[in-house]
Amino acid sequence: MNIVVCLKQVPETAEAEVKLASDKKGIEMEGLPLQINEADNYALEQALLLTEEHDGDVTVVTLGPDSSDEVLRMSMAKGAAEAVRLAGPAFDRGDPVAIARALAAAVKDLEYDLVLTGCMSSDDGNTAVGMALAECLDLPHATYVTQMEMGDGEVTVGRELEGGLIEKLKMKMPCVLGIQTGINEPRYASIMGIAKASKREIAMKSASDLGLDEGSVGEEGSRTKLEELAYPPVGEGAEILEGTPAESSGKLAEVLREKGFV
Amino acid sequence: MAVSLKETYELLGCIQCGRCTAGCPVGFRTYLNVRKVVYEGLTETGPRDAKGRPEAWNCTTCSNCTDRCPKGVKPMELLIGLRSAAIEKGKAMPTVRDALESTFKHGNPWGRGRDKRMEWAEDLDVPVADEGEEAPLLYFYGCTPAYETRAQDVAKSLVRVFAAAGVPYKTLGTAESDCGNEIWRLGEQGLFELLVEGNTELFRSHGVETIVTSSPHCMNTFKNEYGDLGIEALHYSQFLKELLDEGKLELPTPVEKTVTYHDPCFLGKHNEIYDEPRDVLNAVPGVTFVEFDRSRERALCCEGGGGRMWVEAVEERGERIAEIRVNDAVALGADYLVTACPFCLLTLEDAVKTSGNEGKIEVVDLSELVAMAL
Fold first, then answer.
1. Shared domain check, B126 and B54
2. Which tens digit of pLDDT belongs to each residue from B272-313?
3. Which of B91, B113, B189 sits opposite A192 (nearest CB)?
4. What local confidence, expressed as pLDDT, does residue A16 receive?
5. Residue that is last in its domain, among B243, B260, B290
6. Phi-psi bin for A218: left (phi > 0), alpha (psi -120 to 50), beta?
């Protein structure tokens, strides 16, 4: 069984104070470590586990700048057989549908039984590329997948719904699945493994390599355009607890008790 | 062709005497049997990585087994090697994986951002060397005293002591990165080499001649594992001893307490630094020092080393060693259980709570004890 995983590199912002860039079209990236998008890491692990169990290869595909090679190398260090990067100015500033169109052009010529993506990206959070990709490839699609059971030419997936419910779907393969975090426990990519993978080739694809009309991808091929990023307005009701950790945790316990949360 | 464990770790010298197992502090409370691991290594009958032998993750790398082996076999290195083989296959438990990934991304294993590395020093006057500025005497405060709120007291106390003694030190501010001691012991050799390269370059760019560390772990790796670094690495207990001997540090305020001292493995067993911390401790006026029965090279490990701060111990049973240590200290009638290592500080303090000894004894870092006497 061969699996294609579409993934992307994102800045890690969990510990950072995110600042808007001066043009308000992005954030200041200086000092932010780059990493694989969290849900994509689970999608990659799922693909590796499945191909280890059922034999086959994993191909990773990304669309992004040169730095994205790092996540492709990390993926190869973990066990991906092939890596493809869509590169070139034609792809810049694409909306999720334009990105999906580009990815679909790269994926359609590969041999695959499944296409996995993360269910959501941690930067833009559109949760749209996976669905648009399925549409472009004319394949069935499921989101927030937390369970997978392989059958003969089909896969039964569990989708995470609200309130702890799981929706079970039986899907014909090939199909596109948006993988939710927590479905597995991603493995570690050692530095030596990444160094070895850095000697392996990454297939670079431009829009023309993929036979894409430049007007169909990137900013030109997008129906939505980013106008501006802004900070959310300051609301009311937030309280910053001052003091040493021992003092502030005491105050927090007090607040939780007062409000009846504990 | 893969080289066998027996060749890599020269296991054929083993005479199966069992001194390694007898001296192993975690052997009696986990399924780690060092002699058996060595035997199965030399007979090539055992797993070749820590995935197949998860108890290898229980090793604290205290060095008892390697130190006590009469034939010069190095079981501790074998155990680290089993971890390495697992890491190379991506088989790291999530807590270890996260610590390693964090060290690669942020320069510390605690999952915290680099720009928050100097938060401990926010209200203090701590000198930071600008890029390229000379810093002949470097205070390497370390990841744990940077981020862990209790261990921050070690760094805070030390900069107070340095100021009182007029020490012309500098720090590297947020440019400081993990030393790699625990990373190597978690089995991530590639990441360790990356850290050695980065830190060596950084130290050289600042003209560092002496490094004083908060942690015995940082001192150990700078001193013993950084190749031809050419920089003197001292644990702060050694440095404070020098300051006291030279009359630069005065401790006028008595601390009227009965005190015992827990030898950190990476200060004691690994580097045979037993006297300096005791000398510093005894220079504090008012202190009554009582010695543990199991002290110096016979000291019990606290189980905080060897990357164990990030390891979920596998199938442990019975009392934690740090709890035994705390109970022994209480039985000695000590008011303070003093140590000189951020990891020991944390494991012992936790053990005071879990062993029901809160209110009976306090765990104090040597740096804090000295700061009390200023």
1. no
2. 999 999 999 999 999 999 999 999 999 999 999 999 999 988
3. B189
4. 85
5. B243
6. left
